[in-house]
Specification:
Strands 1-2 form a two-stranded parallel ribbon. Helix 1 packs parallel to helix 8, helix 8 runs antiparallel to helix 15 and helix 14 packs antiparallel against helix 17. 54% of the residues are buried. With 461 residues, it is mostly helical. The chain starts with 26 loop residues before the first strand and ends with a strand. The protein is globular. The longest helix has 33 residues. 75% of the residues lie in helices and 1% in strands.
Length: 461
């Protein structure tokens, strides 16, 4: 099946074109099963970002444990090098797990990615230090990070597809928004745990054994997540595809997932670009910007970021419900317009330096980011038909994240170094907003409508 049709103008200029209803009688969703599906999917995202928060905020300690060069800068660069390696293999994971999810089922693949994510994170907590096994310590750290990155390549696309295919059409935005609620909860949990441990433990205890605790927590989290995912049935949309085939699901060539969906893939890359550039800018780069570029107190900077994320968690479900009422396009377009118009004023507030000004500037960026976190989990799966949804979304999402999202801190730091312009983060977000705005212009509204290739889904009793 070809990609979903695209509209030629934004909602304010042209009425939404009617989307043909999928063949087949409406599917009545089971509310209890939908809630379990949302919990199982969101927990995987929470685990991924729990690791992200832990690794980011304990990086200095990890550098001393695994890369004892005596040079703090070299240690930190080596630690983040191992962290960045996970982004390099994400597209490979997407190319493996995505097509596999379209062939054998979403539930089975998501169970595998959960096991791999938990195992990779848990393994880091078990690796002996450099002082114990020498060069094998950083080698094993890199191997664990590659396992994490490979599994993550199939996680987000699969989780968002899973929720989207379970949710009734009129509540897909609200239910999908809980996926990013899990992201925020995981990041706050990881960063908050490291902050607490840093405050309670001595430097010696943190170096010898304390740093292992956050990674070892991934073991029990993974068992819980796997239990939740194994209890779920396959999504109704995928089950219908299997029933239509009457035999084993035919393998869809990778080429068809790309060339056959090129228009939808371009829209996916553009939407994910603005989503992830702004996401990584606010949650990953801004704490470093406050401390290294503006010489802001590190503890206060972290607390401001965690406070902004807590605020985003409160707003997230309401924003998701709003996308069901007014549509995904208006909400995403509002986020793009906001970043285009308010990035410079917000960064000027942050650079003013007082706690109130920094909180206001970061809070403004956080509320704009909610426009994306609340919309994307439901908007992105609706770009692709059911038979290639997991695979095509995995490829488009992970290519965009690896090229643009994960590289944001590095690129912005390099731009500041090359130009000396401290406003470069604002300009970079504005450029991303332009790309996202173009994607919104051409995307088709999906709120309240069946997913392409699937029967209408209504809420059961």
């Amino acid at each position: 099946m070809s990609a979903a049709p695209v509209a030629a103008a934004p909602p304010s200029r042209r009425p939404l074109a009617p989307v043909p209803r999928a063949a087949g009688a409406p599917t009545a969703t089971d509310p209890a099963l939908v809630r379990r599906a949302v919990k199982a999917a969101a927990l995987g995202n929470a685990m991924e970002w729990f690791d992200f928060g832990v690794y980011s905020y304990i990086a200095v300690t990890l550098g001393k444990v695994f890369f004892p060069s005596g040079n703090p800068t070299a240690q930190l660069l080596s630690t983040f090098g191992a962290f960045a390696a996970a982004f390099l293999v994400r597209p490979l994971g997407g190319m493996v797990f995505g097509p596999l999810g379209d062939r054998v089922g979403r539930q089975k693949v998501l169970a595998v990615t959960m096991i791999m994510m938990a195992a990779g994170t848990f393994a880091i907590g078990l690796i002996p230090s450099y002082a114990t096994i020498g060069v094998w310590a950083p080698v094993l750290l890199l191997a664990a990070r590659l396992v994490q990155g490979f599994s993550t390549g199939g996680e987000y696309a699969g989780a968002s597809t899973f929720i989207a295919e379970y949710a009734p059409d009129k509540r897909r935005g609200f239910l999908g928004s809980w996926l990013e609620f899990g992201t925020l909860a995981g990041y706050i949990g990881g960063a908050g745990l490291v902050t607490l441990m840093t405050a309670l433990l001595s430097d010696g205890d943190l170096m010898s054994w304390g740093w292992r605790i956050p990674f070892l927590i991934a073991g029990p989290m993974g068992i819980v997540g796997l239990y939740l995912r194994m209890r779920l049935e396959e999504t109704p949309a995928f089950a219908a595809e299997v029933a239509k085939a009457e035999t084993a699901r035919p393998k869809v060539p990778l080429r068809e997932m790309v060339t056959g969906q090129w228009r939808a893939l371009l829209l996916c890359v553009g939407l994910v670009l603005v989503f992830n550039v702004t996401d990584y800018m606010l949650l990953s780069y801004m704490p470093s910007y406050l401390t290294s570029e503006l010489e802001y107190d590190e503890t206060h900077g972290l607390l401001v970021v965690l406070g902004v994320m807590a605020l985003m968690m409160v707003v997230q479900p309401f924003a998701g419900a709003l996308t069901d009422r007014v549509g995904r396009r208006p909400v995403i377009a509002a986020g793009c317009a906001g970043f285009l118009l308010l990035s410079v004023p917000a960064l000027l507030l942050i650079r003013e330096g007082s706690l109130l000004a920094v909180a206001l500037g970061m809070g403004a960026l956080g509320m704009l980011l909610v426009c994306f976190t609340a919309s994307m989990p439901s908007a992105l799966p609706a770009l692709f038909p059911t038979r290639v949804r997991y695979g095509s979304l995995s490829i488009g999402f992970n290519v965009s994240v690896s090229l643009f999202g994960g590289t944001t801190p590095l690129v912005v730091t390099a731009l500041i170094g090359a130009t000396g312009d401290m406003m470069m983060p604002a300009y970079y977000m504005m450029a991303a907003a332009v790309v996202g705005g173009v994607a919104v212009w051409f995307m088709t509204e999906s709120a309240g409508r069946p997913l392409p290739g699937s029967a209408p889904a209504v809420e059961g009793r």
